[in-house]
Specification:
The chain is an all-alpha fold and 337 residues long. The protein is 72% helix and 0% strand.
Amino acid sequence: MLETALLFREAFNRFRKIEPDFFNVAPTSEDWKNASSLSICLNFFYEVTILFSGTSYVTVNRYFGTACSLYLELREWCDSDDALISKMAVNMMKKFERYWKLTSKTFAIASILDPRFKMKLLDYYFPLIYPGNSEEKKLEIMEVLKRLYNEYATHYASSSHVYSANISKNQVNMEDSVGSSDSTSSSQSSFTSRRKGLTAFLEESSQHDVVRTDLEQYLSADVHPIRKGSGIDQNDSSFDVFGWWKFYGPMYPIVAVIARDILAILASSVASESVFSTSGRVVDKFRSSMLPETIEALICTQDWIRSALKSSTSLQTLLEAMEELESDDDDATSHIV
């Protein structure tokens, strides 16, 4: 609205000269100056709000770069020569810092688990946000990630230990049954001893090898190449981070489990509140006796129709598919009867 009003600034000034009654209510030059400054700030907040309130993407790795940019913008506005902008930014900065303390580490870890960036976003933004102690802040994030990895590795090792213990038990039973067989020969015994000797040799020689965790392997590997022409865009909808982890998960099994849990964290409650708002419009006082299945069908159908309108699939095609399903249900019912 402010951007539209600024386009007609000269028209307002001319009308002020022509119409005397408009003189007392017309915007002054100071008002126009404030409107121009606020429009720039509000335009940035509009883009941030659109990102955080989106419901078609839910992975938290999308928000770290935007949150860092917002932090830096607020800091610049606090030092602005414009008293209105400075006062507004100081009050907003107090609230944002509380939010930043609660979410910055989660956002940072999520960006590390994005194979397109890994540590690159931290390397770029942290020197700007924390000049002088950016390395300490990055070490704090890595310590949190390592503690998280160790906790997941403990559970992963315990589940693997149960599996390996069952295998070992079966192997022992097989060896006992083989040993008790009358057909056991001295050649088999020598083969078993050589195999045990090889195992002992491999264990002794591997003690000097440096074993890297899959977290270290993931961080040292090259980043996933960014799609040509898309630029450095965290909100590139063509990249499916869960699909990437599903494909490369066997290479980094523990990190893949962490990514599955961390990336699914909601950055805001907009998506959840949107679902409840939709259900409130569906289940009103006139339709409060519907079955849960009917309510689910109505909400899902509404979501599918809206998705079809936004995508290349036409609404007519979707309606034809629904009519086809209904006819199939009628045919099935008639056969049963």
